[in-house]
Amino acid sequence: MTTLHARLNDELTRLRSAGLHITPRVLDAPQRARTRVDGVDVVNLASNNYLGFADHPYLKERAEAYLRTWGAGAGAVRTIAGTLKIHEDFEAQLAQFKHTGSALVLQSGFTTNQGVLGSLLQEGDLVISDELNHASIIDGLRLAKATKKIFKHKDMADLRRVLQENPTDGLKLVVTDGVFSMDGDIAPLDQIVAIAREFGAVTYVDDAHGSGVLGAQGRGTVHHFGFEHADDVIQVGTLSKAWGVVGGYAAGDANLRDVLINKARPFLFSTGHPPAVVGALSAALDLVQQDESFMTRLWENTRYFKAELQRLGFDTFGSETPITPVIFGEASAAFEASRRLLQEGVFAVGLGFPTVPRDLARIRNIVTAEHTREDLDHALGAYERVGRALGVVGG
Ligand code: PMP
């Protein structure tokens, strides 16, 4: 008989021997461009806090106001008694921001993919997913009853082949990340939507890393390509990265919201957001529209940091967004570089197999609007020294 103790021990041993065991680093200060990690003062290149909203006073003030007025918690599942007026108002604000017929907010980006893919797709439907799509899409598709196919990363000929080889009278859905989280490249939505339309398919974009980053005032990848009014495009994403808080959303056709309210299981069976979260989120959408300098600084910093890394001889792997990978090859080299960078006061996380291909281990840097030129220069100096010491760049 397997005891719980034996099972837990076996799991930890297996993870450690496969080099997959993780112990999260701990921030001793708020999530900002400069923070403290495990007791060290650092320039933070590890967060998804693209606009620097996670600790922004404008968000915190509204969170506090909503907390005082509306209470600490929603008190019930949204479909039972947990829908407060502020939930509905924020969803209307989000639909307006996204230029879509409707929007619904769920607990997280992860549960949004599970809720939407798990409830929308039926037997006889076809869903085709880019091979590099996020884990929450993969798990969402596990819940879907449709026929599931994969197309090669951003390979339009392969997408077309899969659509041709799998005719169906059911719903066809092409699923892609808007911005890919490991490489920082942008999905060619102009081509994806055009091919999907040829086959009568709907395009589903997970814009976790594009919302607040691409498109006018951060309206996202779908807006960047001009498809925001299209009723054959579904946008999902997170409210935890650029928007600095927590949550997920689905936005699109006017009826999408009502169907998801009635069918998406994470929405139906799990309590909605506390008022402070809703307050901070509504402030985040206001702030990005009132003050364009957040987007301007994010992109100035992105262009500067990427260009300087390349000038030093680092391979940033074709990244087009603030997600800036630096390729080290072997996982051991990436992890060693990350450790040395931390000693130099730079927090940037190493990623190896199975998160990324075996020979493409990397450090993933994320530039934000909050970084100063001084922060970025500090990080670049550390990169130069560590890169030279490890023989990744010459000199
Ligand atoms: N989709 C993508 C592409 C992501 O990168 C993430 C975050 N890691 C998620 C979904 C999940 O979002 P959340 O953290 O809100 O659950």
Element pattern in H and E: HEEHHHEHEHEHEHEHEEHHHHEHEEEH
Large-scale geometry:
globular
Work out the helix count.
15
Instruction: Estimate the mean pLDDT confidence.
Output: 97
Note the beta-strand portion: 15-25%
What is the radius of gyration? 22 Å
- Which ions, cofactors or small ligands are bound in this entry? 4'-deoxy-4'-aminopyridoxal-5'-phosphate
Tally the structural domains: 2
Strand-pairing-aware structural class: alpha/beta
- What is the name of the CATH class of the largest domain? Alpha Beta
Q: What is the second-level CATH architecture of the largest domain? A: 3-Layer(aba) Sandwich
Strand arrangement, largest sheet?
3-9-8-7-6-4-5
Stretches where pLDDT is under 50 for at least 5 consecutive residues are: none
